[in-house]
Amino acid sequence: MYLSEADIPKAAGFLGMPPDAFEAKYVYRTRNFIRLRKPRNSQCHFLDATGCRIHPAKPAQCRLFPFWPELVENVAAWKATAVYCPGIGTGPLVQIGTALEIADEMRTAYPRMYEPQNKP
After folding, report:
1. Residue 27 near residue 1, CB atoms below 8 Å
2. Number of domains in the chain
3. Is residue 58 part of a domain?
């Protein structure tokens, strides 16, 4: 799970931790990205049978799913995601314009993920 710089103090505050302690326990950084550490026996430290334990402060990537650019801009990818995402196709209809605006939030939160590929 990717994090933005803004996600760290938000989640840390929700858990009552200083951001540096949250980062030391749950985060690792690469040259290009900030990521949540993946626990050995689950997908996320904060996801359990009842849902997200930090829901009000969850990272942008989680909050914006499934309205990621690579999904809303690709019909086949959207349909493939619908197979395992129980929210797709249920609830109120989200207009494509709104979905694209939400997808732009993902680009803003994680600009390095969506920068154009430098091709020769």
Report:
1. no
2. 2
3. no
Asked whether the beta carbons of 20 and 8 are under 8 A apart, the reply is: no
Q: Give the pLDDT band of residue 115 (cuts 50, 70, 90).
A: confident
Tell me, yes or no, whether 89 and 119 share the same domain: yes
Tell me, yes or no, whether 73 and 46 share the same domain.
no
Q: Is the pLDDT of residue 120 over 80?
A: no
For residues 109 and 87, what is the distance between their CA atoms, to the nearest angstrom? Answer: 22
How do residues 44-89 score in pLDDT, each as one tens digit?
999 988 989 999 999 999 999 999 999 999 999 999 999 999 889 8
Give the C-alpha separation, 58 to 10, whole Å: 8
Question: Can you give the residue range of the structural domain that contains 100?
Answer: 65-120
Cα gap 52→44, rounded to integer Å:
9
Number of H-type helices and E-type strands within the chain: 6, 5
